[in-house]
Specification:
Elements: H1 6-11, E1 20-21, E2 30-32, E3 35-39, H2 43-54, E4 66-67, E5 79-83, E6 88-89, H3 96-110, H4 125-135, H5 143-153, E7 164-167, E8 174-176, E9 183-184, E10 189-192, H6 194-208, H7 214-218, H8 225-245, H9 250-270
Helix pairs in contact: 3-6, 4-8, 5-8, 5-9, 6-8, 6-9, 8-9
Length: 272
């Protein structure tokens, strides 16, 4: 990924300090002094998130402070900026409890927000995977991918929990620092039950971070928990399926399905 040009750095008021690539963030984040610059995929979505974060007043959870460009906009030439957030990634699965605590705090704050209209306009693989899990969109991808999705879809039952704005990937986007509240970064908004955010985090931790299956029992107090878990695994595999339909190779897909299948099987065993 190319570093932001000098014109972008200047547009966000940063000094001409060295530009450093940051780990994580799909290799697309760059730090200049105390400012982090990233490409913007959805300008309207980013502006909405920035407005929410700019008005953040809850002391129990930190969020990135968005930075306006010199023209007053939240993005410039396809780039956006926020202040550096102090903290380290969680150590998983050892600190799974911090995901629960942080998710509960974050979703308590954003609960009053109305459903943003841009959710209907997004067409990225993650949004498509979400629609497969929740709205009946047609599964896509290679045979093994579709088979795993269909196994999950066949066991779906209605959920009663109300929808709200949620963080679609909170498990991988919590930072902790000594003496500070946890921080939530890189927010992809969705409108689903708050427990779905935890379900995605739990399913991901089992599939990709070696978390034990006991995580599923530890958070079973979440309303509609088993059905949310089922949708979480479908969401992840259906996202991969959409990527396959857009040209993703079968080798990585086989590995992906292989990592998700034990999680799907464990969730299916929990259902009546």
């Amino acid at each position: 990924m190319m570093a932001p040009p000098a014109s972008v750095v200047a547009a966000f008021g940063s000094d001409p300090a060295p530009v450093r690539s940051l780990a994580g963030g799909q290799g697309r984040a760059w730090r200049v002094g105390d400012v982090v610059l990233k490409p913007v995929d959805h300008v309207v979505e980013h502006a909405w998130v920035s407005e929410v974060f700019a008005g953040w007043r809850d002391a129990g959870v930190r969020v990135p402070e968005p930075v306006r460009a010199v023209d007053g906009s939240w993005s410039y030439a396809g780039w956006a900026a926020h202040r550096w957030v102090e903290g380290r990634d969680l150590a998983l699965p050892q600190e799974m409890h911090l995901i629960r605590r942080t998710s509960d705090a974050f979703h308590r704050v954003v609960r009053p927000l109305r459903r943003p209209a841009f959710l209907d306009e997004r067409s990225d693989p993650w949004s498509y995977g979400d629609r497969v899990a929740w709205e009946g969109a047609e599964p896509q991808g290679h045979g093994a991918t579709r088979d795993l999705i269909m196994a999950g879809l066949s066991a779906l039952q209605p959920v009663q929990s109300p929808g709200q704005v949620i963080h679609g990937d909170i498990g991988g986007n919590v930072l902790v620092a000594a003496g500070l509240p946890p921080a939530v970064i890189d927010w992809p908004p969705y409108f689903r039950p708050a427990g779905f955010a935890l379900a995605v985090a739990a399913a991901d931790a089992i599939s990709w971070s070696g978390a034990p299956l006991s995580v599923l029992d530890a958070w079973s107090d979440v309303p509609d928990w088993d059905q949310l878990l089922l949708r979480a695994v479908i969401y992840r595999v259906a996202t991969r399926g959409r990527s396959e339909a857009l040209g993703g190779g079968p080798t990585d897909s086989e590995q992906y399905v292989g990592r998700c299948r034990p999680t799907m099987d464990a969730v299916l065993r929990r259902l009546p």
